[in-house]
């Protein structure tokens, strides 16, 4: 696809191209599930190897490795939940709308992260400041 074509599509209203966003989110969903499966297999292999070797001098190192793997799996599950929530918003016809203030999310924001829920002003861990769409008081 030509660069100009991609720029033109990404500047359009996201609601006008929901099938494309759904396809992209479904691809991300499949990739995320594959990552979770890989992390789960790696965790179980490492846990099995740890118990099979039974070497106390490696116990601390193995435990740290297993905790890192669990943290990665938890992060991957959270990312999967965000993707599934975005797919749900497509079904509910609320995709591309900030859940806090109702502002239409810019296509560039969705292009960077198609599962986002909030505009930058409303994002819980965002760049700070107040959303321009919310009343000041």
Structure description:
This protein is mainly α. The protein has two domains: 83 residues; 41 residues, no CATH class. The chain is built from four helices and no strands. Helix 2 runs antiparallel to helix 3. The longest helix has 36 residues. The chain starts with a helix and ends in a 25-residue tail after the last helix. The N terminus is likely disordered.
Helical stretch count? Answer: 4
What would you report as the Rg, rounded to the nearest angstrom?
Answer: 20 Å
Fraction in beta strands: under 5%
Structural class: mainly alpha
Helicity, in percent? 55-70%
> Tell me about the biggest sheet?
none
Secondary-structure element series: HHHH
| Uncertain ranges | 1-11
Mean pLDDT: 81
The total strand number stands at 0
Distance from N terminus to C terminus (CA atoms, Å) equals: 47 Å
User: In the residues, how many domains can be counted?
Assistant: 2
Outline: elongated
Keywords:
single chain; 137 residues; mainly alpha; disordered N terminus
Summarize it.
The protein has helices spanning 3-10, 18-53, 59-91, 107-112.
Secondary-structure map with pairings?
Layout: H1 3-10, H2 18-53, H3 59-91, H4 107-112
Helix pairs in contact: 2-3
């Amino acid at each position: 696809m030509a660069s100009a074509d991609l720029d033109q599509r990404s500047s359009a209203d996201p609601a006008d191209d929901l099938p494309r966003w759904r396809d992209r989110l479904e691809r991300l969903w499949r990739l995320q599930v594959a990552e979770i499966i890989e992390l789960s297999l790696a965790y179980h292999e490492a846990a099995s190897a740890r118990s099979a070797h039974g070497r106390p001098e490696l116990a601390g190192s193995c435990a740290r490795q297993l905790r890192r793997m669990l943290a990665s799996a938890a992060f991957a599950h959270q990312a999967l939940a965000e993707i599934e929530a975005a797919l749900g918003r497509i079904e509910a016809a609320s995709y591309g709308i900030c859940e806090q203030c109702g502002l239409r999310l810019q296509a560039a924001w969705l292009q960077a992260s198609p599962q986002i829920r909030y505009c930058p002003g409303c994002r819980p861990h965002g760049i700070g400041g107040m959303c321009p769409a919310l009343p000041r008081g």
